[in-house]
Amino acid sequence: MRNNCIFCSIIRGESPANIIYKDEDFVVFHTRKPSAPVHVLIVPVEHIESVNELKEHNVEVVSKMILKSKEIAEDLGIKDSGYKLVINVGSGAGQVIFHLHIHLIGGWNKS
Q1: Model's pTM, two decimal places?
Q2: What gap in Å lies between CA 108 and CA 90, rounded to an integer?
């Protein structure tokens, strides 16, 4: 974890966040600037700057994050209506916080 990383600070419990899931590998919390009715971030506990920094030992945690996303979508009531998983890689793609995270976004048209 990095001292100056806001996501690391949230993971350590030093900064506030609306955390909806947490285990030893990753946390899920509502973003402070949602772009949709439902917008949460899935963030690994290990500080990894972006997809470009992933190593072989990260395969399991990233797989778990993606698999857990369908459960989170169901818990948030958007599994059936549809949702997006988005990973921005680098500032040119819109990455603002340089700690790998998956945006789970949806809720526009609940059925």
Answers
A1: 0.94
A2: 27
For 80-96, the pLDDT digits (tens) are: 999 999 999 999 999 99
- Render pLDDT for 21-40 as a digit per residue (tens, 0 to 9): 999 999 999 999 999 999 99
Q: How far apart are CA 42 and CA 81, in angstroms?
A: 20
Q: How many residues does the chain have?
A: 111
- In CATH, which of 3.30.428.10, 3.10.50.40, 3.40.50.360, 3.30.1540.20 is domain 6-106? 3.30.428.10
- β-bridge pairing 38-44 and 19-22: unpaired
Q: Which of 39, 99, 101, 103 is catalytic?
A: 101
Beta carbons of 58 and 52 less than 8 angstroms apart: no
Q: What is the dihedral of CA 28, 29, 33, 39, to 10 degrees?
A: 60
> Would you call 57 a catalytic residue per the annotation?
no
- Whether residue 4 is predicted with pLDDT greater than 60 in this model: the reply is yes
